[in-house]
Structures are given as structure tokens and as C-alpha cells.
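Sat 14:20. Reprocessing the chain from the morning session after the first attempt stalled halfway. Input below, unchanged.
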Amino acid sequence: MAETVGVVGAGALGSLLAVQLARAGNTVIALARSEATRAALATDAPHHLTVERDPEALRSATLLLICVKARDTQSAADALAGLGPRWPGIASLQNGWDHMEILERRLPEAPLLAGATSLGAYFDAEGHLHGSLAGTTLVAPWGRTEARWAEYAATVLRSA
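Finished this time. C-alpha cells:
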């Protein structure tokens, strides 16, 4: 099953997920703010991975993974607000508090998923991505979101 997945936040975790999902044959659009991050990820990107700055590029995604720092959730939600009314599932894989409430307030019609992962990743001093895929990732519906969205996200994540 090849899907179109958007990854908002191309830090270590977002980059790890984007690369793995693309290697599994999914079309992946990673949203990255910094030019250096976009250039580094694009250099090592598998064939099905594009790196963009404009949130409009995410319009074709059927699933979005939010991988920004919790302090950046509001700006990420603001950037995504124009993607409706045909919303993709939006799974937050963030640390911290209040990120789900922020997403719920800013994107009230979007199917939201709360996620937790024990995957680990980091960029070394030369900017190369290293990661461990020997972890568990869980997603659950948030608020009024139907369980089928969590099942869909889990299926996509398992594909990678």
C-alpha cells in the first residue's frame, strides 16, 4: 500500500520517519523551515521523498505526521490551517504538553491522532542522520476522531 504522507518538521525524528516511509515506497513530502535542513535531507533522500517549505505542498497527503518541538506546535498548526476542508489524518508525534489541545483548537475539523514513539534519531556533527527503528509507535484517536484514522496511520507506519 503506497500512500502520500506529509511530515511536518524535518528534525531527527521527522527525517527518520520521512526516509523510512519513502524507502517503503510511499510518496513523502517533508516540510522543513531551514534551507540547510532541506538541502541535507534532499541530498540523502530516497526517490519518493521531496522536501518543501510551503505547506501547500502537503495538500495531496492522506496522512500528516507532526514532528515539531511542542513549542512550535502553534506555528505548525497555523501553517496547516489552510489545508481543509478535505483533511488528512494528522498524527502528533511530539514531546511536551498541550500540543494536542493546540492542534484541536486551531484545526477543529481535522481528524487528530495522539501519538507516542520510542524511536530514536540524531544528526551527527557532519549532518548525517542516524536512527534506531527498534522501538514502538502508538497512535490513538483524539477527541471526536474515528478509530479508523488511527488504524490507517498504524498501517502506514507499519509499512516502513
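The radius of gyration is 14 Å.
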